[in-house]
Amino acid sequence: xxxxxxxxxxxxxxxxxxxxxxxxxxxxxxxxxxxxxxxxxxxxxxxxxxxxxxxxxxxxxxxxxxxxxxxxxxxxxxxxxxxxxxxxxxxxxxxxxxxxxxxxxxxxxxxxxxxxxxxxxxxxxxxxxxxxxxxxxxxxxxxxxxxxxxxxxxxxxxxxxxxxxxxxxxxxxxxxxxxxxxxxxxxxxxxxxxxxxxxxxxxxxxxxxxxxxxxxxxxxxxxxxxxxxxxxxxxxxxxxxxxxxxxxxxxxxxxxxxxxxxxxxxxxxxxxxxxxxxxxxxxxxxxxxxxxxxxxxxxxxxxxxxxxxxxxxxxxxxxxxxxxxxxxxxxxxxxxxxxxxxxxxxxxxxxxxxxxxxxxxxxxxxxxxxxxxxxxxxxxxxxxxxxxxxxxxxxxxxxxxxxxxxxxxxxxxxxxxxxxxxxxxxxxxxxxxxxxxxxxxxxxxxxxxxxxxxxxxxxxxxxxxxxxxxxxxxxxxxxxxxxxxxxxxxxxxxxxxxxxxxxxxxxxxxxxxxxxxxxxxxxxxxxxxxxxxxxxxxxxxxxxxxxxxxxxxxxxxxxxxxxxxxxxxxxxxxxxxxxxxxxxxxxxxxxxxxxxxxxxxxxxxxxxxxxxxxxxxxxxxxxxxxxxxxxxxxxxxxxxxxxxxxxxxxxxxxxxxxxxxxxxxxxxxxxxxxxxxxxxxxxxxxxxxxxxxxxxxxxxxxxxxxxxxxxxxxxxxxxxxxxxxxxxxxxxxxxxxxxxxxxxxxx
Length: 747
Description:
This protein is of the alpha+beta class. The protein has 3 domains: 77-206 and 232-278, CATH 3.30.830.10; 301-503, CATH 3.30.830.10; 525-742, outer membrane lipoprotein receptor (LolB), chain A (Clam), CATH 2.50.20.10. The protein contains 20 helices and 25 strands. Strands 18-17-16-15-14-13-25-24-23-22-21-20-19 form a 13-stranded antiparallel sheet. The chain has a 6-stranded mixed sheet with strand order 1-2-6-3-5-4, with helices on both faces. The protein has a 6-stranded mixed sheet with strand order 9-10-8-11-7-12, with helices on both faces. The two termini are 38 Å apart.
């Protein structure tokens, strides 16, 4: 019997049972004498329970009483200032033969102007990618040779440069770190690569529901006029220029706006001499004032529904303003927040929303620990049908904590966990050094770092309750619900909750004006000329004027698609009608047919077993990119007005050295790296950033001439763990193609 016939049999059995007599009082025939009287019962042969040897004992060992939190014993700490004004903090710890340098620049995302959104992160990404003395490869080889690591990272309040090596190799950090901070070269090639990677990361957010919900709730809370409400987009990243990176670095990377923490096995007197010499080239400069932003008032309750169709779960965020790190309510807020949602499975939100309500697998709450007041956010998710019910549970717990605060037992549990875990977090010398530098950034002292457990332990239930009453604002908060809008909206309407509705792929926060042209990136004229020469040769090898005159193309092929550990057969037909129409028809495993098309200004559509629909606006750029990087047309892109071309260093691929040329569209939206065979001049590979957070690598082989154009008949493409290996079996050059081929079908 097949699985289908078994299922049908079970269904028939179920239907038969359901169609039987209606339920009612049972009629049971009885005989005289039936009942409990005169009935022999079986004897109970169960042996009696063994006596408990521990019962009644008064001499059992009891758990020791909980000790009150103790301060952290700090190792020797020394502070001094270099001649150029750089403050240095040293945490000496000889337990391990390791030295770590952490340089904090007091500038990050919070200091960016809107017109330069993303400049702090891009600058940090470029610091290890080249100096006046070393390129990215030389820096990597230098640190790898000694088994160390070096990196730069921009956060909200500061930018951190860290370098760690064995003690005997500390001179490597003393060379590289000052060199990176004082002599970055910001090479154009590395800028392009870093921007590509950042754009991919930002695009990945559309497929990452928690990250997308988090971005929306910050924007809804702080608004479009506050830096915390701004969200980096591909448009902001692409418009950044090398000149803006240089200006940001020159403005903020000055000794008086920095602090260096050195930790580990060091000789302090010798370290002073080494640091003075290493940072001698870092000259004093004025420190600019940090920008100030005013938090907008929260007028009541605001709800934003972020519509992401066909989602089975709803991401829920509830947010309001938090507290500053130096706020007297900081430690009481730590305690009540632990009881509310910071204490994982022991917290109220987890117990009520997960254990009792059965609405989700997790719920938590957290608040920013910044020098300025940040956000307080409750995070959870649930089944779409339970969206409003789960939201109501969350709001009820917020109201209860606001009204009554935590219980005595919750306070004790919070203190035990917060104070106890803190000691583990600062057990390493580098962790402690980082905590001390952060305390300095927030205007706090060494005593704060040492006495953190004691300060937590001093919080009383009354203080925690009062902090909850004053910090939580049950009548002034924002809510973001990200999920299937068509199913969530009726729930909100039925509950009488006003809301705004936005598409998941809509821009978040302010965006660059479309009319503002992207500032062109400066490219070395010699490299540009070399790149154009290589591509001219590649175009001639492919077919020259035949390619230029191409009007239409139809190509069919078949092969294998490997994804998620499975390999299936795939057949495809690709149809191009220049300049702006493209269609792909794909059959997977000889069963499932998928089509998608780009119909010029009319937009795009897709058809699958799930139905026919317009392509979401977020997917149109990716489809346009596919048309732009098409291997039959990509060699023509340098001829487009404003396109930027540059020759890159040759690379070895599969044991063969290939010429490399990078091409970027005039608007900066598309960039691809082309790999050319020096002997045949033909395109053998290309790499470009694709949607969904992946880099696509395509390889081309088995070139054959069709109507004067040399076309690769073997194509292997890999991206995000998926690999397609296609053999082309038919190519039509300039066939008659009806434009209706690209129009959206009626059904």
